[in-house]
């Protein structure tokens, strides 16, 4: 479906006004040359072109009527442009030079973020912006003679997209590096740097190798929208496709970009109270624990953040308010409303003895029965396996009440995701598998972007097979290095196969809704019985059974972005592998630097405003309880039996909603409730900071309901571009602040304490009572 415009045209062209006018770039728009970037009134990249005047008038007109964007078909047709020029170069000197530089930049920033209390991630959008500025600058160099090697011509959208894929791949935190950090921090095992880096490459490449058999299901079809890519492709096309409309869009982008760049200095450094503004906390004056637990949200592991409004886009963007579909957001809102009740009720009813033992309200760490940190070395032998006698003497570990509920609801989500995928997407799965042909394209897919991609050679499936064999061999070999015996070779293969199944499950969910659930609970339960008493083996089982498939999803998402921008599949493949190689090296180097400098803070269950180890704490806690103590804690009749039991309950939860949808297909309520998302967000809040969810809900409603329905023209032109501008400006200034004032360069510069920046020893950021 295309947008139907109503324009004033001369009488002789009246038939154009009555017809559906194609977008600039459709095949019906004639040009003397193939489409290229930077189209303006003078042509394409300075060359003469012939473009229908009526079509150009419609494209640049503000006085148009636009349809309300409802589903993936409309988004694919109306928001993402289908134009393509197969002659544009991709793997140029600019690609390698800018891609490597931005990949190094992003990998460093990603590793810094991993050890921050905010849980921030590196957005590809800020790398995109920098690449555009530098790419256009390099395109101004001479292009004759040997300069042609450095400047092959105008900086084009395919080259730009490949740079973004290169750099964003390196900016994805490698879980293998995190496990190396845990081995050093909690087990006193310092893995050889070469082995650690090679192992990281191998685990990521195992995930990449699975992509080849999922393309027909999760990349080519229109329903595989991958919503997170929409701001990126919207900005890319605005930058490279000219005309008056895109000039206005880019002016809008740079205004928002500059505004958020300047604004973010205030809440992140000068006035941190704005990261979690709570009227209830301000009225309480830091007197009551209950107020902090329920309404506090400004500091790491402080509280649930009920009615807390943050004005820091670095946090708000984690709610994905501008591009997650309304259905996805509504399900997350329902889940979080339940979460407030569930977590508060669990703590004050003393679930798992969390309150009576004096444990914190929120933490992912392990504790003893008297509330002190649990020393896992007391129950492990010299081979890091469970010492049953020592365990009986020292006693069992305890989770906080809230973290127990979080693990339970995440397992509900795991089980529900499997059933949801089967009930709602079984036809898509069958169609995808039917279209799987070794080395050939799928002729049965009707997607405007896939049709353009048929002009390019695909990466043959045997190439993915070779990657799998090589990476699997390396993984098996490194598992035995140095006598650590992290996991047997056969187990590497077993959990990789299990992980492939779950890549399909969570892949369909993420491709269609934008939401990514965690199935790590299932993997760890399986590993607990296959490798009892071995926490390190449990961690590595998660690495191959869950985190490697996560790499599959990252690669699929990048390949979808490549399809939107018409980047040849082989170029996308090369960009991803280049980013993986460079990113693993730099993330390992940064991990060593950060952990060596801040080890004591990172081991603290609460952390500080600047550094926190809650990511590794949670991973290690589950490895100890599932790996070393699976039978002692999770079997029937044991303290935490209900956590694995939630998997079975989750399997049946989506069925009633699906049956009601089949019985009443016209009632949208039943299809709007996505059970895996609801159950996941029921346990989303009891860690990190939580000041962003309420403003995220308000912005999400305005964007995905009000603007989409009542301002469809603005929504089509600017909504995803607004997300890109906000993310890009925020990421760049936050990077600068990290090195300038937050200690990433070694020196921390605290802003003077005042009412909006209270002394952390007296009050939390939002002026709630400080956790004890």
Automatic annotation (TrEMBL):
GO terms for biological process: protein transport. Keywords: Membrane, Peptide transport, Protein transport, Transmembrane, Transmembrane helix, Transport. One of its GO terms (molecular function) is oligopeptide transmembrane transporter activity. Its main location: membrane. The keyword Protein transport applies. One of its GO terms (cellular component) is membrane. It is found in: Membrane. The chain crosses the membrane at residues 95-115, 121-141, 162-183, 252-283, 330-348, 462-481, 487-509, 570-590, 640-660, 669-686, 692-708, 720-744. It is a multi-pass membrane protein. Belongs to the oligopeptide OPT transporter family. NCBIfam families: OPT_sfam (TIGR00728). This is OPT oligopeptide transporter protein-domain-containing protein. It comes from Naematelia encephala. The lineage of its organism: Eukaryota, Fungi, Dikarya, Basidiomycota, Agaricomycotina.
